[in-house]
Design goal:
Elements lengths: L2 H7 L3 H4 L10 H10 L4 E5 L5 H13 L3 E6 L4 E6 L7 H6 L4 E6 L18 E3 L2 E3 L5 E5 L6 H14 L3 E3 L17 H14 L3 E4 L6 H7 L2 E4 L7 H10 L3 E4 L6 H12 L6 E5 L15 H10 L4 E3 L1 H5 L5 H11 L3 E5 L17 H17 L13
Parallel strand pairs: 7-8, 7-14, 8-9, 9-10, 10-11, 11-12, 12-13, 13-14
Antiparallel strand pairs: 1-3, 1-4, 2-3, 5-6
Helix pairs in contact: 1-4, 6-7, 6-14, 9-10, 13-14
The structure holds phosphoenolpyruvate and manganese (II) ion.
Phosphoenolpyruvate binds next to loops.
Length: 386
Amino acid sequence: MTALELDIAARPRLRLALPQKNHRPSFIEQLLPLAKENVSMIVVMRSNATEEELNAVLARIQEHGLQGRVTCGEERNIVGVIGATIPSTLQEELERFPGVQEAVRITRPYKLAAREFHPQDTIVQVGDVAIGGGSFVVIAGPCAVESEAQIMATAFAVREAGAHMLRGGAFKPRSSPYTFRGLGEEGLRLLAQARAETGLPIVTEVMTPTDVELVARYADVLQIGARNMQNFQLLEEVGRSGKPALLKRGMSATIEEWLLSAEYIIAQGNPNVILCERGIRTFETATRNTMDLNAVALAKRRSHLPIIADPSHGTGKWYLVPPLALASLAAGADGVMIEVHPDPDRATSDGGQSLTCENFAALMPQMTALAGTLGRRGVFWLNIER
Ligand code: PEP
Ligand code: MN
Protein backbone atom coordinates (compact mmCIF):
# COMPACT_ATOMS: atom_id res chain seq x y z
CA MET A 1 0.00 0.00 0.00
CA THR A 2 1.27 3.47 -0.80
CA ALA A 3 1.14 6.18 1.86
CA LEU A 4 -1.81 7.73 0.05
CA GLU A 5 -3.81 4.50 0.05
CA LEU A 6 -3.09 4.07 3.75
CA ASP A 7 -4.29 7.57 4.40
CA ILE A 8 -7.52 6.94 2.51
CA ALA A 9 -8.08 3.56 4.15
CA ALA A 10 -7.80 5.27 7.53
CA ARG A 11 -10.62 7.71 6.79
CA PRO A 12 -13.90 6.43 8.27
CA ARG A 13 -15.96 8.54 5.84
CA LEU A 14 -15.21 6.03 3.11
CA ARG A 15 -17.09 3.29 4.87
CA LEU A 16 -20.11 5.51 5.33
CA ALA A 17 -20.07 5.98 1.57
CA LEU A 18 -21.06 2.42 0.89
CA PRO A 19 -24.82 2.00 0.35
CA GLN A 20 -26.64 1.23 3.57
CA LYS A 21 -29.35 -1.35 3.32
CA ASN A 22 -32.46 0.47 4.40
CA HIS A 23 -31.78 4.04 3.42
CA ARG A 24 -32.55 5.19 -0.10
CA PRO A 25 -31.57 8.86 -0.21
CA SER A 26 -33.36 11.19 -2.57
CA PHE A 27 -31.40 13.00 -5.23
CA ILE A 28 -31.44 16.12 -3.08
CA GLU A 29 -30.04 14.30 -0.06
CA GLN A 30 -27.35 12.92 -2.28
CA LEU A 31 -26.48 16.05 -4.22
CA LEU A 32 -27.19 18.97 -1.87
CA PRO A 33 -23.92 18.58 0.07
CA LEU A 34 -22.03 18.64 -3.23
CA ALA A 35 -24.03 21.62 -4.56
CA LYS A 36 -23.18 23.57 -1.40
CA GLU A 37 -19.49 22.94 -1.95
CA ASN A 38 -19.68 24.24 -5.51
CA VAL A 39 -18.74 20.90 -7.02
CA SER A 40 -16.90 21.04 -10.36
CA MET A 41 -17.28 17.46 -11.53
CA ILE A 42 -19.20 14.37 -10.52
CA VAL A 43 -17.98 10.85 -11.04
CA VAL A 44 -20.80 8.35 -11.21
CA MET A 45 -19.70 4.90 -10.06
CA ARG A 46 -21.28 1.74 -11.44
CA SER A 47 -23.78 0.12 -9.11
CA ASN A 48 -21.47 -2.90 -8.75
CA ALA A 49 -18.29 -0.85 -8.20
CA THR A 50 -16.13 -2.16 -5.35
CA GLU A 51 -14.67 -0.23 -2.45
CA GLU A 52 -11.20 -0.65 -3.98
CA GLU A 53 -12.37 0.91 -7.24
CA LEU A 54 -13.89 3.81 -5.35
CA ASN A 55 -10.69 4.32 -3.39
CA ALA A 56 -8.61 4.33 -6.56
CA VAL A 57 -10.76 7.13 -7.97
CA LEU A 58 -10.42 9.14 -4.77
CA ALA A 59 -6.68 8.63 -4.75
CA ARG A 60 -6.33 9.96 -8.28
CA ILE A 61 -8.45 12.99 -7.46
CA GLN A 62 -6.20 13.73 -4.49
CA GLU A 63 -3.09 13.33 -6.62
CA HIS A 64 -4.36 16.25 -8.65
CA GLY A 65 -4.56 18.38 -5.48
CA LEU A 66 -8.38 18.20 -5.51
CA GLN A 67 -10.82 16.83 -2.98
CA GLY A 68 -13.21 13.97 -3.55
CA ARG A 69 -16.49 13.72 -1.66
CA VAL A 70 -18.39 10.45 -1.74
CA THR A 71 -22.15 10.42 -1.42
CA CYS A 72 -24.29 7.37 -1.41
CA GLY A 73 -27.26 7.27 -3.76
CA GLU A 74 -30.32 5.18 -4.42
CA GLU A 75 -28.43 2.81 -6.67
CA ARG A 76 -24.85 3.95 -6.78
CA ASN A 77 -22.21 6.09 -5.17
CA ILE A 78 -21.10 9.29 -6.72
CA VAL A 79 -17.91 11.19 -6.11
CA GLY A 80 -17.96 14.97 -6.23
CA VAL A 81 -14.72 16.68 -7.23
CA ILE A 82 -14.17 19.88 -5.29
CA GLY A 83 -11.57 22.36 -6.50
CA ALA A 84 -11.40 25.55 -8.49
CA THR A 85 -9.27 24.36 -11.43
CA ILE A 86 -9.98 20.98 -12.87
CA PRO A 87 -7.38 19.69 -15.36
CA SER A 88 -8.88 19.39 -18.84
CA THR A 89 -7.88 15.72 -19.06
CA LEU A 90 -9.40 14.62 -15.73
CA GLN A 91 -12.76 13.61 -17.13
CA GLU A 92 -11.26 11.26 -19.70
CA GLU A 93 -8.75 9.95 -17.19
CA LEU A 94 -11.38 9.06 -14.58
CA GLU A 95 -13.67 7.47 -17.13
CA ARG A 96 -10.94 4.90 -17.83
CA PHE A 97 -10.96 3.73 -14.18
CA PRO A 98 -12.68 0.41 -13.53
CA GLY A 99 -15.97 0.88 -11.70
CA VAL A 100 -16.58 4.35 -13.16
CA GLN A 101 -19.70 4.75 -15.25
CA GLU A 102 -19.11 8.36 -16.28
CA ALA A 103 -17.55 11.62 -15.19
CA VAL A 104 -19.54 14.80 -15.81
CA ARG A 105 -18.22 18.33 -15.61
CA ILE A 106 -20.51 20.68 -13.71
CA THR A 107 -20.31 24.01 -15.44
CA ARG A 108 -23.42 25.87 -14.26
CA PRO A 109 -23.79 27.97 -11.11
CA TYR A 110 -27.09 26.24 -10.36
CA LYS A 111 -26.59 22.58 -9.50
CA LEU A 112 -29.73 20.84 -8.24
CA ALA A 113 -31.75 22.41 -11.07
CA ALA A 114 -29.20 21.39 -13.70
CA ARG A 115 -29.55 18.49 -16.10
CA GLU A 116 -25.82 17.91 -15.70
CA PHE A 117 -26.58 16.82 -12.14
CA HIS A 118 -29.82 14.99 -12.79
CA PRO A 119 -30.19 13.83 -16.41
CA GLN A 120 -33.72 12.36 -16.13
CA ASP A 121 -36.77 14.63 -16.47
CA THR A 122 -38.31 15.54 -13.14
CA ILE A 123 -42.00 14.71 -12.99
CA VAL A 124 -44.04 16.84 -10.60
CA GLN A 125 -47.12 14.96 -9.47
CA VAL A 126 -50.14 17.08 -8.59
CA GLY A 127 -53.03 14.78 -7.63
CA ASP A 128 -53.67 12.70 -10.74
CA VAL A 129 -51.76 15.08 -12.99
CA ALA A 130 -48.12 14.38 -13.84
CA ILE A 131 -46.23 17.41 -15.11
CA GLY A 132 -43.08 16.68 -17.09
CA GLY A 133 -41.72 13.48 -18.60
CA GLY A 134 -43.63 13.59 -21.89
CA SER A 135 -47.18 14.59 -21.08
CA PHE A 136 -48.79 17.90 -22.02
CA VAL A 137 -50.72 19.59 -19.27
CA VAL A 138 -53.23 22.41 -19.65
CA ILE A 139 -53.88 24.83 -16.79
CA ALA A 140 -56.69 27.27 -17.41
CA GLY A 141 -58.75 29.83 -15.54
CA PRO A 142 -59.19 33.51 -14.91
CA CYS A 143 -56.44 35.95 -14.04
CA ALA A 144 -58.21 36.72 -10.76
CA VAL A 145 -60.94 34.99 -8.78
CA GLU A 146 -63.73 37.59 -8.83
CA SER A 147 -66.89 35.88 -7.59
CA GLU A 148 -68.40 32.46 -6.97
CA ALA A 149 -70.38 32.64 -10.22
CA GLN A 150 -67.32 33.62 -12.26
CA ILE A 151 -64.93 30.96 -10.90
CA MET A 152 -67.53 28.16 -11.00
CA ALA A 153 -68.58 28.97 -14.57
CA THR A 154 -64.94 29.04 -15.67
CA ALA A 155 -63.97 25.88 -13.77
CA PHE A 156 -66.78 23.83 -15.30
CA ALA A 157 -66.16 25.23 -18.79
CA VAL A 158 -62.42 24.54 -18.81
CA ARG A 159 -62.91 21.08 -17.35
CA GLU A 160 -65.50 20.33 -20.01
CA ALA A 161 -63.01 21.42 -22.66
CA GLY A 162 -60.36 19.07 -21.23
CA ALA A 163 -58.15 21.26 -18.99
CA HIS A 164 -56.26 19.43 -16.24
CA MET A 165 -55.93 22.16 -13.64
CA LEU A 166 -57.63 25.37 -12.66
CA ARG A 167 -55.76 28.64 -12.15
CA GLY A 168 -56.96 31.86 -10.52
CA GLY A 169 -55.34 34.55 -8.41
CA ALA A 170 -56.63 35.38 -4.92
CA PHE A 171 -53.65 37.61 -4.15
CA LYS A 172 -52.87 39.70 -7.22
CA PRO A 173 -49.62 41.59 -7.83
CA ARG A 174 -50.82 44.72 -9.65
CA SER A 175 -48.68 47.51 -11.07
CA SER A 176 -51.09 50.11 -9.65
CA PRO A 177 -52.25 50.07 -6.02
CA TYR A 178 -55.64 51.43 -7.17
CA THR A 179 -56.64 48.40 -9.26
CA PHE A 180 -58.31 45.17 -8.05
CA ARG A 181 -55.81 43.26 -5.95
CA GLY A 182 -57.73 40.06 -5.37
CA LEU A 183 -60.27 38.65 -2.91
CA GLY A 184 -57.59 37.28 -0.56
CA GLU A 185 -58.64 34.31 1.58
CA GLU A 186 -62.20 34.47 0.27
CA GLY A 187 -60.72 33.86 -3.20
CA LEU A 188 -58.85 30.82 -1.86
CA ARG A 189 -62.09 29.45 -0.39
CA LEU A 190 -63.82 29.86 -3.76
CA LEU A 191 -60.96 28.04 -5.48
CA ALA A 192 -61.23 25.18 -2.98
CA GLN A 193 -64.96 25.03 -3.68
CA ALA A 194 -64.28 24.90 -7.43
CA ARG A 195 -61.82 22.05 -6.86
CA ALA A 196 -64.35 20.18 -4.73
CA GLU A 197 -67.00 20.49 -7.44
CA THR A 198 -64.87 19.83 -10.53
CA GLY A 199 -61.98 17.69 -9.25
CA LEU A 200 -59.46 20.05 -10.86
CA PRO A 201 -56.34 20.78 -8.77
CA ILE A 202 -55.73 24.49 -8.27
CA VAL A 203 -52.80 26.78 -9.00
CA THR A 204 -52.76 30.13 -7.23
CA GLU A 205 -50.22 32.82 -6.46
CA VAL A 206 -48.56 33.50 -3.12
CA MET A 207 -46.95 36.91 -2.81
CA THR A 208 -45.25 37.03 0.57
CA PRO A 209 -43.39 34.55 2.80
CA THR A 210 -45.90 35.12 5.62
CA ASP A 211 -48.80 34.03 3.36
CA VAL A 212 -47.21 30.72 2.33
CA GLU A 213 -48.79 28.75 5.15
CA LEU A 214 -52.25 30.16 4.39
CA VAL A 215 -52.10 29.73 0.62
CA ALA A 216 -50.55 26.25 0.93
CA ARG A 217 -53.58 25.15 2.98
CA TYR A 218 -55.81 25.68 -0.07
CA ALA A 219 -53.58 25.39 -3.15
CA ASP A 220 -52.25 22.32 -4.93
CA VAL A 221 -49.55 24.39 -6.64
CA LEU A 222 -48.08 27.64 -5.30
CA GLN A 223 -47.46 30.15 -8.08
CA ILE A 224 -44.53 32.55 -7.65
CA GLY A 225 -45.17 35.54 -9.88
CA ALA A 226 -42.76 37.17 -12.29
CA ARG A 227 -42.33 40.17 -9.98
CA ASN A 228 -41.34 37.87 -7.13
CA MET A 229 -38.91 35.60 -8.96
CA GLN A 230 -36.03 36.98 -6.92
CA ASN A 231 -37.85 37.34 -3.62
CA PHE A 232 -35.43 34.94 -2.02
CA GLN A 233 -37.24 34.67 1.30
CA LEU A 234 -40.44 33.74 -0.52
CA LEU A 235 -38.56 31.15 -2.58
CA GLU A 236 -37.13 29.57 0.56
CA GLU A 237 -40.47 29.56 2.37
CA VAL A 238 -42.13 27.88 -0.61
CA GLY A 239 -39.22 25.44 -0.61
CA ARG A 240 -39.81 24.62 3.03
CA SER A 241 -43.56 24.14 2.45
CA GLY A 242 -42.78 21.15 0.20
CA LYS A 243 -45.73 22.09 -2.07
CA PRO A 244 -45.26 22.02 -5.84
CA ALA A 245 -44.19 25.47 -7.01
CA LEU A 246 -44.83 27.15 -10.36
CA LEU A 247 -41.94 29.56 -10.74
CA LYS A 248 -42.59 32.31 -13.27
CA ARG A 249 -39.64 33.85 -15.03
CA GLY A 250 -39.07 37.49 -14.11
CA MET A 251 -39.86 39.80 -17.00
CA SER A 252 -36.23 40.97 -17.09
CA ALA A 253 -34.55 37.86 -15.74
CA THR A 254 -31.99 35.83 -17.62
CA ILE A 255 -32.48 32.10 -17.94
CA GLU A 256 -29.56 31.59 -15.56
CA GLU A 257 -31.13 33.85 -12.91
CA TRP A 258 -34.41 31.99 -13.31
CA LEU A 259 -32.75 28.60 -12.77
CA LEU A 260 -30.85 29.98 -9.78
CA SER A 261 -34.21 30.98 -8.30
CA ALA A 262 -35.41 27.42 -8.85
CA GLU A 263 -32.24 26.33 -7.04
CA TYR A 264 -33.31 28.30 -3.95
CA ILE A 265 -36.53 26.28 -3.74
CA ILE A 266 -34.89 22.89 -4.39
CA ALA A 267 -32.09 23.62 -1.90
CA GLN A 268 -34.77 23.66 0.82
CA GLY A 269 -35.47 20.03 0.01
CA ASN A 270 -38.38 20.63 -2.38
CA PRO A 271 -37.72 19.19 -5.85
CA ASN A 272 -41.27 19.91 -7.07
CA VAL A 273 -40.51 22.97 -9.13
CA ILE A 274 -42.30 23.76 -12.39
CA LEU A 275 -40.74 26.53 -14.47
CA CYS A 276 -43.07 28.95 -16.27
CA GLU A 277 -42.01 31.13 -19.20
CA ARG A 278 -44.39 34.11 -19.35
CA GLY A 279 -42.71 36.49 -21.75
CA ILE A 280 -39.96 39.04 -21.26
CA ARG A 281 -39.63 42.77 -21.80
CA THR A 282 -37.97 43.70 -25.07
CA PHE A 283 -37.89 46.85 -27.24
CA GLU A 284 -41.13 45.68 -28.87
CA THR A 285 -44.23 47.58 -27.77
CA ALA A 286 -46.79 45.98 -30.10
CA THR A 287 -47.28 43.14 -27.62
CA ARG A 288 -47.32 43.23 -23.82
CA ASN A 289 -44.25 40.99 -23.62
CA THR A 290 -42.22 38.87 -26.02
CA MET A 291 -42.88 35.17 -25.57
CA ASP A 292 -39.37 33.77 -25.30
CA LEU A 293 -39.61 30.34 -26.87
CA ASN A 294 -35.82 30.13 -26.97
CA ALA A 295 -36.04 29.96 -23.20
CA VAL A 296 -38.54 27.10 -23.33
CA ALA A 297 -36.25 24.98 -25.50
CA LEU A 298 -33.08 26.01 -23.67
CA ALA A 299 -34.48 25.51 -20.17
CA LYS A 300 -35.46 21.97 -21.17
CA ARG A 301 -31.89 21.34 -22.22
CA ARG A 302 -30.20 22.95 -19.23
CA SER A 303 -32.62 21.73 -16.57
CA HIS A 304 -34.53 18.57 -15.73
CA LEU A 305 -37.46 20.59 -14.37
CA PRO A 306 -40.77 20.65 -16.25
CA ILE A 307 -41.63 23.89 -18.00
CA ILE A 308 -45.02 25.45 -18.62
CA ALA A 309 -45.58 28.28 -21.10
CA ASP A 310 -47.95 31.16 -20.41
CA PRO A 311 -48.87 32.72 -23.75
CA SER A 312 -51.52 34.95 -22.10
CA HIS A 313 -48.98 37.12 -20.30
CA GLY A 314 -46.42 36.36 -23.00
CA THR A 315 -48.45 38.18 -25.64
CA GLY A 316 -51.07 40.26 -23.79
CA LYS A 317 -53.54 39.73 -26.64
CA TRP A 318 -56.19 37.02 -26.63
CA TYR A 319 -55.97 36.44 -30.39
CA LEU A 320 -52.22 35.70 -30.10
CA VAL A 321 -52.76 33.10 -27.38
CA PRO A 322 -53.75 30.13 -29.61
CA PRO A 323 -50.80 30.42 -32.04
CA LEU A 324 -48.29 30.91 -29.23
CA ALA A 325 -49.80 28.08 -27.17
CA LEU A 326 -49.27 25.75 -30.14
CA ALA A 327 -45.77 27.12 -30.75
CA SER A 328 -44.88 26.53 -27.09
CA LEU A 329 -45.97 22.93 -27.38
CA ALA A 330 -43.82 22.54 -30.50
CA ALA A 331 -40.86 24.18 -28.70
CA GLY A 332 -41.02 21.48 -26.02
CA ALA A 333 -43.12 22.97 -23.23
CA ASP A 334 -44.61 20.40 -20.85
CA GLY A 335 -47.83 22.34 -20.78
CA VAL A 336 -49.48 25.72 -21.03
CA MET A 337 -51.23 28.02 -18.62
CA ILE A 338 -53.98 30.04 -20.26
CA GLU A 339 -56.20 32.80 -18.92
CA VAL A 340 -59.88 32.10 -19.58
CA HIS A 341 -62.82 34.27 -18.51
CA PRO A 342 -66.54 33.82 -19.18
CA ASP A 343 -66.86 37.55 -19.95
CA PRO A 344 -63.40 39.00 -20.69
CA ASP A 345 -64.74 42.51 -21.35
CA ARG A 346 -65.84 42.69 -17.71
CA ALA A 347 -62.77 41.02 -16.17
CA THR A 348 -61.18 42.88 -13.27
CA SER A 349 -57.72 42.10 -14.64
CA ASP A 350 -56.15 40.93 -17.89
CA GLY A 351 -59.43 40.77 -19.85
CA GLY A 352 -57.65 41.73 -23.07
CA GLN A 353 -55.50 38.60 -22.96
CA SER A 354 -58.17 36.20 -21.71
CA LEU A 355 -59.85 33.67 -23.97
CA THR A 356 -63.58 33.21 -23.75
CA CYS A 357 -64.68 29.74 -22.68
CA GLU A 358 -65.68 29.06 -26.30
CA ASN A 359 -62.31 30.10 -27.72
CA PHE A 360 -60.55 27.98 -25.15
CA ALA A 361 -62.72 25.01 -26.07
CA ALA A 362 -61.79 25.54 -29.73
CA LEU A 363 -58.07 25.60 -28.92
CA MET A 364 -58.02 22.35 -26.92
CA PRO A 365 -58.50 19.95 -29.88
CA GLN A 366 -55.79 21.78 -31.81
CA MET A 367 -53.36 21.29 -28.94
CA THR A 368 -54.35 17.66 -28.56
CA ALA A 369 -53.84 17.03 -32.28
CA LEU A 370 -50.41 18.68 -32.24
CA ALA A 371 -49.40 16.83 -29.05
CA GLY A 372 -50.30 13.56 -30.82
CA THR A 373 -48.28 14.51 -33.90
CA LEU A 374 -45.29 15.30 -31.72
CA GLY A 375 -45.59 11.94 -29.97
CA ARG A 376 -46.50 13.51 -26.65
CA ARG A 377 -48.96 11.74 -24.42
CA GLY A 378 -52.37 13.21 -25.02
CA VAL A 379 -54.15 15.54 -22.69
CA PHE A 380 -57.20 13.41 -21.99
CA TRP A 381 -55.81 11.03 -19.43
CA LEU A 382 -56.90 12.68 -16.23
CA ASN A 383 -58.52 10.18 -13.93
CA ILE A 384 -61.50 12.17 -12.68
CA GLU A 385 -65.19 11.84 -13.28
CA ARG A 386 -66.55 14.20 -15.84
C1 PEP B 1 -50.78 35.96 -13.42
O1 PEP B 1 -50.49 34.78 -13.63
O2 PEP B 1 -51.93 36.42 -13.43
C2 PEP B 1 -49.66 36.91 -13.18
C3 PEP B 1 -49.79 37.98 -12.40
O3 PEP B 1 -48.54 36.55 -13.84
P1 PEP B 1 -47.08 37.21 -13.91
O4 PEP B 1 -46.50 37.09 -12.53
O5 PEP B 1 -46.38 36.35 -14.92
O6 PEP B 1 -47.22 38.64 -14.37
MN1 MN C 1 -52.98 37.74 -15.22
